[in-house]
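Table S2 (continued). Query chain:
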Amino acid sequence: MKKTIIAISALILCACNPDTWNLDVTGMFSGSSPGINQRVEDSFRYNDEHGYPVINATSENYKVYIATDTHVDFTRDNWERFINDYRADTNCPLAIHLGDLVNAQNHWDYMKRPLDSIPANPLKHDTLLVVVGNHDLYFNQWKEYLLRWKTATYYAIVKTPAGKQDLYIFIDTGEGILGERQTEWLKQTLTWADGQGFRHIAVSTHTNLFKRDSSQENSSNMPLEETYALIHLLKMHNVKMFWCGHDHSREITNLGTMMAITVDALKDPEAHPAYMIATMSDEDIHYRFVDLK
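Corresponding output:
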């Protein structure tokens, strides 16, 4: 009954305000995508066939551009600014999107168009790696995500000219849970990583570990049991950074040897849109935010 009242209220609000006609509120109540276990199996089929990305950096101290929650709809100004800035930076071999790429159905091609229309910098290889967000699943959009991005549970390796390697792990928390199959894969991947001599390990996902507000209501973070188990697992395997989005506002949490960072939303319009740049060096992972307003 409560969900019905919320859904009706949301529809009334959208009807009264033309600027919110394409809000994906009702996606939370109908047309759901497959559950986490099915999505993970879909991702693994692609990984098994195509392997995991290996990216070559041109410097020992290279940069990673990180954006989230673009919610691309009828405008994409901030998203195009991010892509332009990333493409212009010759010391940045990859960019990461932390989910909620689109706001609703039928905007995937519109979201990807800047990747095709803006010329790539000939001095580097352009790579955008993404994870799936809750908005990317609404209205059974998982099949659309798979068509364009192929996998949501995977890892990538970046190699420096001196042969050092950094590991980037991407996990699917689009519906706020990890699931047994994905958790087991994460444990196996981190155990394997222990013996590979990686310089840094960073984990990227959509849903927050913690939250300070209730802007996303009950979808803001994972169950506490999973949160505690995940933090313990990541710290046990020396993960340096946990990057997420979803809550739309910047939050930095120190967890001993690991730092959890919620990146600001980049959607149009947003009161304080920003993206983050992480610099990977021998000493540490440094970061700064680029405010667009």
